[in-house]
Design a protein that fits this description.
By secondary structure, this protein is of the alpha/beta class. It is built from 13 helices and 22 strands. The strands form four sheets. The protein has a seven-stranded mixed beta sheet with strand order 6-5-4-3-2-1-22. Helix 4 packs antiparallel against helix 5. It starts with 9 loop residues before the first strand and ends with a strand. 48% of the residues are buried. The structure holds zinc ion.
Length: 481
C-alpha cells in the first residue's frame, strides 16, 4: 500500500559538470509523470559556466535547459563562476524565481558576477573595435544588467535551518569548507519515517587549510552527489608554509621582490595569513606586502566578515595573532599599481590573475622577471595553454616569456607551491564519506574528468562495498525514487 507521503518519481538530472569540472548544473525533479501528481517540482542546484576549452565554452551560448519557466527554485552551493556564472544569462532568458544562497555566497557572488559581466562586455567591445571575431556583431554572454538581475534574485538563508520549498520538500545548507559561503545542500523529500535525504556536496574543502574551517561531517543521507575534481589525486602533505617561507626568506635576503600571482577568492587570503604566520615565527622579515588586485581586496573583506567559515582568531590589523601581514598595503588606482611596480625591494606583491591570463600581475612580471634577485611563486594550478603554465614549465629553460608584445628575459627564480588546493583530494573524499553516520545507498560522482571519477569509484567501492557508485560521464537523468 502506497503511503500518501511517499516520495515518488524523483529524478536527478545532470546538465553540466558531467565528465568535466565546469558547468555545474543539476536538477532535482519531484513528482513527474505520476497520475496523482500535478506539475513536477524542479529545483536547480547551481547554474555554472562552462570554462576551459572552446568546445566546452561554446555550450554557454546554447539555450539553457531546462527552460527557465519550468524551474521553481535555484539553490546555489557557492559563488565560483563554474557554479554561478550562468545565472545572469538564465535570468535574462526569463528565470524570475528565487536563487537561494548563504550570505557569504551572496556577497562573493555579487563581486564575481559583476566582474565577469564587465570582462564580457569589454571583450565584446574590443572584438567589435578590432574586427577580431568570427561574428559580425560580437555580443557579451551577459551584461552588467543581466548580472544585476541575478543578484536581485538572491535569497539569503542561514545554514543548518530547513527551508520549505514545496509540499513535503525542504532543504538546508551545511558548511562546505571550500570558499567563503560554500555549502553542501541537503534536500528532504517526503515526511516522517519515509522521507528521503538527497545531498549535493558542491565543491568540498579539506582540513589542511590554515584559514578555512573544514566541511562538516554528515549525519545521514540516502543519496549523495559527490564532486570528484581530485578523485584520482592525492595532494602532497608537505607543509606549504615551510616551502613558501623558504622561497620568501631567500628572496628578501637578496633584497629581491617576491611576486605571487593570485587567485582572488580563497588562495589570496590563505597566502596573506601564511605570510603573517611566517612573520610571527620570524621565519621571514617584516617587509611591505602589497595586495594589488581590487577584486582580491574585496574578497578578503568578505572573507573576514564571515567568521563562521574561517578559523582566524582576530580580524583586520589584529594583534600578534592577527590575520594580515604587519606592513600590509592595498592599491586602488592603476597609478598606485604602477607605483608598486617601480618600488625597490625587499617586498612582496600579490596580484591577479593567478594563471597570468591578464590583469595587473603582468606589469609586475614585466618589471621583476629580468632581475635575478626576484622570485615568482605560483600558488595554484596552471591550466594548459596559459602563460602561467608556460612560465612554470619553460620560462627558465627558454630564458624569456612574451608579455605585452615584448620578449621579457626570465632571470628571476620561478617557483611553485602547489599543495594549497581548496578541494578535497581522493583521500579526503573517501575519509569524508566514511564519517557519514548513516551512509548513502547510492553515490553519484560528478564534477570530475572520467579518469578522476573512475579512480574515485574504485577507491569508494573498495572501502564501502555496500554503496552503489555511479560516475557521471555525460549529461543525463536518473530515477532515484
Ligand atoms: Zn569551487
Amino acid at each position: 500500500m502506497k503511503n500518501a507521503n511517499q516520495p515518488t518519481n524523483v529524478f536527478l538530472e545532470f546538465h553540466g559538470a558531467a565528465g568535466e569540472v565546469t558547468g555545474s548544473r543539476s536538477v532535482l525533479r519531484i513528482g513527474a509523470g505520476d497520475a496523482n501528481s500535478q506539475v513536477p517540482l524542479r529545483i536547480m542546484v547551481d547554474c555554472g559556466l562552462f570554462q576551459g576549452s572552446s568546445d566546452s565554452r561554446a555550450q554557454n551560448w546554447e539555450p539553457t535547459l531546462p527552460r527557465p519557466a519550468d524551474i521553481s527554485a535555484i539553490v546555489l552551493t557557492h559563488a565560483h563562476l563554474d557554479h554561478s556564472g550562468r545565472l545572469p544569462r538564465y535570468c535574462h532568458e526569463g528565470y524570475g524565481g528565487p536563487i537561494y544562497c548563504t550570505d557569504g555566497t551572496a556577497g562573493l557572488g555579487k563581486i564575481l558576477l559583476l566582474d565577469a559581466a564587465f570582462l564580457e562586455e569589454e571583450q565584446a567591445a574590443y572584438a567589435r573595435r578590432t574586427g577580431y571575431s568570427r561574428h559580425k556583431n560580437p555580443l557579451p554572454l551577459f551584461t552588467e544588467h543581466d548580472a544585476n538581475l541575478a543578484i536581485d534574485q538572491f535569497k539569503v538563508v542561514p545554514r543548518n535551518v530547513w527551508q520549505k520549498l514545496g509540499e513535503n520538500v525542504s532543504f538546508q545548507f551545511l558548511r562546505g569548507g571550500h570558499i567563503t559561503g560554500a555549502s553542501l545542500v541537503q534536500f528532504a523529500i517526503g515526511t516522517g519515517d519515509i522521507s528521503r535525504i538527497v545531498t549535493f556536496s558542491g565543491d568540498l574543502g579539506n582540513d589542511r587549510s590554515l584559514t578555512m574551517r573544514p566541511p562538516v561531517d554528515l549525519v545521514e543521507t540516502d543519496i549523495l552527489v559527490l564532486e570528484s575534481t581530485y578523485g584520482s589525486r592525492i595532494q602532497s602533505r608537505q607543509p606549504a608554509l615551510e616551502m613558501l617561507g623558504g622561497i620568501i626568506a631567500r628572496t628578501l635576503a637578496r633584497n629581491g621582490v617576491v611576486v605571487i600571482p593570485a587567485f582572488a577568492v580563497g588562495r589570496t587570503q590563505e597566502i596573506l595569513y601564511m605570510i603573517r604566520l611566517l612573520e610571527n615565527k620570524k621565519a621571514i622579515p617584516q617587509v611591505p606586502v602589497v595586495l594589488d588586485s581590487p577584486m582580491a581586496s574585496a574578497a578578503t573583506r568578505m572573507f573576514l566578515q564571515h567568521s563562521e567559515d574561517h578559523q582566524i582568531a582576530t580580524g583586520f590589523n589584529g594583534g600578534p595573532d592577527g590575520f594580515l601581514p604587519r606592513y600590509f598595503e592595498t592599491t586602488h588606482s592603476s597609478d598606485e599599481s604602477m607605483a608598486a611596480c617601480m618600488r625597490e625591494g625587499p617586498m612582496i606583491v600579490i596580484s591577479a590573475s593567478g594563471m597570468l591570463n591578464g590583469g595587473r600581475v603582468l606589469h609586475h612580471l614585466k618589471t621583476r622577471l629580468p632581475d635575478a634577485r626576484n622570485s615568482v611563486v605560483f600558488v595554484g594550478y596552471q591550466a594548459e595553454g596559459t602563460k602561467g603554465r608556460y612560465l612554470v614549465e619553460k620560462g627558465k629553460e627558454e630564458g624569456r616569456v612574451r608579455i605585452f608584445h615584448a620578449e621579457v628575459p626570465v632571470e628571476a627564480d620561478v617557483e611553485s607551491v602547489d599543495n594549497l588546493s581548496a578541494h578535497a583530494d581522493q583521500e579526503d573524499l573517501v575519509g569524508w564519506v566514511g564519517r557519514i553516520q548513516r551512509r548513502p545507498k547510492k553515490i553519484f560522482l560528478n564534477h570530475g574528468s572520467k579518469e578522476s571519477s573512475e579512480a574515485l569509484k574504485t577507491r569508494l567501492e573498495h572501502a564501502f562495498p555496500e554503496i552503489e557508485i555511479l560516475p557521471i560521464h555525460s549529461q543525463g537523468e536518473f530515477r532515484i525514487s
